[in-house]
Amino acid sequence: MKHKLLSIFCLSALILIFTGCTKSSTGRNQITLFSKSELSTMGASSFEEMKKKEKISTNKKTNQYVQCVADAIIKNVPKSAHNGEWEVVVFDSEQVNAFALPGGKIGVYTGILKVATTQDQLAAIMGHEVAHVIERHSNERLSSNQLVQMGSAAGSAILTQQGVENKETWMMVGLGIAQYGVLMPYGRMHESEADIVGQDLMAKSGFEPKAAIELWRNMAKQSKGAPPEFLSTHPSNKTRINDLTKHLAKSTAFYQDKNKPSCKVPKSI
User: Fold this and answer.
1) Backbone angles phi, psi at 8, to 5 degrees
2) Which of 79, 105, 203, 263 is close enough to 68 for a disulfide, judged by CB 3.0 to 4.6 Å?
3) CA 179 to CA 202: how far, in whole Å?
4) Confidence band of 194 (pLDDT split at 50, 70, 90)
5) What are the residue boundaries of the structural domains of the chain, listed by start?
6) Half-sphere exposure for 150 (CA within 13 Å, toward CB)
7) Confidence (pLDDT) at 230
């Protein structure tokens, strides 16, 4: 009986998470429980909090460089993702990171500029992050987490009603299965999708799409000792490089050298 109840709980969570009500641009089924306005409000709020906590770069040339790349990318973002002005902020931090949030927000840490050493590589990072917004990945992650919590509450109620002993242990097992069997692969799916959509976006914006492959080779050098792929929310660097290499011919079809921006990399970050 215990195993049957646990199976019902896990199966229900899986069905809820993978039952799509919308589709991504790649044709993947999605479930999005939050409205665009709700996500934009959450994104703006989170961005304001980060601006209060993180040190913002005042380096004029660095800001101009990042804004130049961002402007080229933003021109090719569908209005369905954000129809308005985008805010771009450079954070003065050694953290190797960048992000984009619903509501037209982009954050770039100066640490990433030491890994993304060219304008094309920086465009690969921005294209990837903006692709998360285009494909509504934040909405999916919030929705899937909410559904797992709902499934957990329902499972707990059923186990209590049935008088099952060691309920907490069984619930931990169920949540563990959801985490490693559903949420982490779900996260890796988002990352892989953002890599491909971002590679197309950077190419449409005049940046060489092969730079996305070069970027992840640089990243691989920086991430020694990373956890195995099945224990991570991100694909391995090898997987990303292979996927981007396979997709290169398609993204190259969008690239035109005459549209290439001229964003000057600052000598010092």
Assistant:
1) -60, -45
2) 263
3) 32
4) very high
5) 2-259
6) 12
7) 44
Q: Is 129 a catalytic residue?
A: yes
CB 75 within 8 A of CB 205: yes
Q: Say which of 129, 140, 208, 214 is annotated catalytic.
A: 129
Going by pLDDT thresholds of 50, 70 and 90, the confidence category of residue 223 is confident
* Tokens linked to 228: 């195995």
CA angle in degrees (0–180, nearest 5) for 17-19-20? 105
Burial 134-173 (b: 16+ CB within 10 A, else e): bbbbbbbbbbbeebbeebbeebbeebeeeebeebeebbee
Place 190 in a pLDDT band, splitting at 50, 70 and 90. Answer: confident
**What average pLDDT is seen over the chain?**
81
Give the model's confidence band at 94: pLDDT under 50 very low, under 70 low, under 90 confident, else very high. very high
Please tell me whether the overall predicted TM-score, pTM, comes out greater than 0.85 for this model.
no
Write the DSSP string, the chain.
Answer: -HHHHHHHHHHHHHHHHH--SEE-TTS-EE---S-HHHHHHHHHHHHHHHHHHSPBP--HHHHHHHHHHHHHHHTTS-TTT--S--EEEEE--S---EEEETTTEEEEEGGGGGTS-SHHHHHHHHHHHHHHHHTTHHHHHHHHHHHHHHHHHHHHHHHHHTT-TTHHHHHHHHHHHHIIIIIHHHHHHHHHHHHHHHHHHHHHTT--TTHHHHHHHHHHHH-TTPPPGGGSSS--HHHHHHHHHHHHHHHHTT--GGG---PPPPS--
